[in-house]
């Protein structure tokens, strides 16, 4: 159903899009907006149209709500009745541009993607203080969908247009005015809501209505052809040439899209608007057919898919407040303050509270001394902190989080105390990567408990694991997930244990690296191979940085739980002799002054077969895998682990594995993750490759039964027909 709200006031049609989902503007929303514009175009008594957002979601459009729009044009599904086909964003922009009466957009909150492009087609825009406007399609490996390569440079010139379209530049209210997108900026005020979308006090609404009325009586002011950015053709072409020469080789596949966008922006100077729009449509259609863009779209859709969390359908409080209980929660308090949340820090006794506050302040001061944090920002964060020993304060916040204490008796006592102190609208969460949420819920008298895994290592700080007790409500899951997203993390649900999927894939990666080392591959070769494929950090370097003792302990926990096969013992041997990594000065690499050097002698001897290992090394005459073989073995092992997790119900869908691999292990987004890559490469091909690799290590690479079943029944990893 459409989320479009309508009202009429003083001859002006007021339209508001309410509570858009994270995926953005869907087919029904576009159809509803088109019908409203068509009706308005034939209403001779209408003075103008004002369109704006209503609700906390703002005007953000991730461009992911319509799967059909993300297919190459030749493969899109045809509707039986062409008249029922919703208009594209490009068609909506053209409708707005061709309206007989002025159309004014009220831009407030986050305005992104296609909705930002609609602003360029409007006769006028009002920007509300606090605006964050961005053109985001290139993050999906796509040129814009609705004319931004043509309309934006006509307003602000080539350089600023390319900064917005390719550089990720975000414009605030003043920046939108300076770029010629908005006519006026107004101070922040009450936001529109779905219940009250058109109240007179809504920030920017009176000004938008006044501008529409003014443009209606002075049609010569209607800027249907804004060309200020084309005023100096020589400078414009120089900016285009500079952009082409500066284009560096980033992630594989993105350069082609960037070059096409630059071509389209150049065309804005040379071609008519209609011809330029046709060039943009062709560039987008070509990009939609590429594997790189399909991978980026797959990841982005998985990140915003609400059906991945169970039970679904809940809502989280919009209040940016959280209570954190216990000294163990100090790192979480620091992260929440950095994310702009107001935090109540609760400790049951004053001594514990003083200890927690001391650790928090010391950590912030260290950031200031290191130059990573301004003193003023530290003070602003501390101003949002409310320390207390009164547990009853939990009843005043929407979310209470036990910070991850490790003593089982203390955890049980804290959860029971939270159950008593929390208000009826307070959701309770525990930070726990390995605890069984059902057991914790029973022991802590918290039937609706949710646990979160919030890893602190650098590569996984964009990931949060979630597990929900059987009695957890949709609102409890939504509250926990919403909190993790406020921290900038992508949420993946594991069955029963919040960190299960992350620990499973991490253990699989550790065992595969061991196997490669014992087959003669050096740490440098392994890391270089994966870095060349786009991984953020090579696994050997990461293991040393995180600590081999910690890496092997986590892998052992995953193995003991039956989620992964045991390691081969080599990494454990290094940890046992004190070669734990960077902190010890030696691990897989030698470390001097905190920087990695060459491979340590013990590792070199193991690679060459000169030391005993927990598993046999290959024949002396067998060459170690080359760069492609290293990548192939690691990607195959992760795909096998993912298939097993899906088959066991640990992962709700294959996309969960991809998100964990990307946000937890550091795989490149452009790969789509191991499951997406396996599906795109063909399941029969994967099965054949696994059968060949299984001779090297059956536990790592034996094809799971699910793979044969998918092939036999013609299904894909996404659940549909092949």
TrEMBL record:
Disordered as annotated region, ranges: 62-86
Matching Gene3D superfamilies: 1.10.1040.50, 2-enoyl-CoA Hydratase, Chain A, domain 1, NAD(P)-binding Rossmann-like Domain
Occurrences of domain 3-hydroxyacyl-CoA dehydrogenase NAD binding (ranges): 322-443
GO function terms (MF aspect): enoyl-CoA hydratase activity; long-chain (3S)-3-hydroxyacyl-CoA dehydrogenase (NAD+) activity; NAD+ binding
InterPro entries the record matches: 3-OHacyl-CoA_DH_NAD-bd, 3HC_DH_C, 6-PGluconate_DH-like_C_sf, ClpP/crotonase-like_dom_sf, Enoyl-CoA_hydra/iso, FA_oxidation_alpha_subunit, NAD(P)-bd_dom_sf
Substrates-to-products reaction catalysed: a (3S)-3-hydroxyacyl-CoA + NAD(+) = a 3-oxoacyl-CoA + NADH + H(+)
This protein's UniProt keywords: Fatty acid metabolism, Lipid degradation, Lipid metabolism, Lyase, Multifunctional enzyme, NAD, Oxidoreductase
Pathway(s) the chain acts in: Lipid metabolism; fatty acid beta-oxidation
GO biological process assignments: fatty acid beta-oxidation
Record-annotated 3-hydroxyacyl-CoA dehydrogenase C-terminal domain positions: 508-591
Pfam families: 3HCDH, 3HCDH_N, ECH_1
Low complexity bias (residue ranges): 62-73
Family (UniProt): In the central section; belongs to the 3-hydroxyacyl-CoA dehydrogenase family.
Name of the featured protein: Uncharacterized protein
Organism name: Mesobaculum littorinae
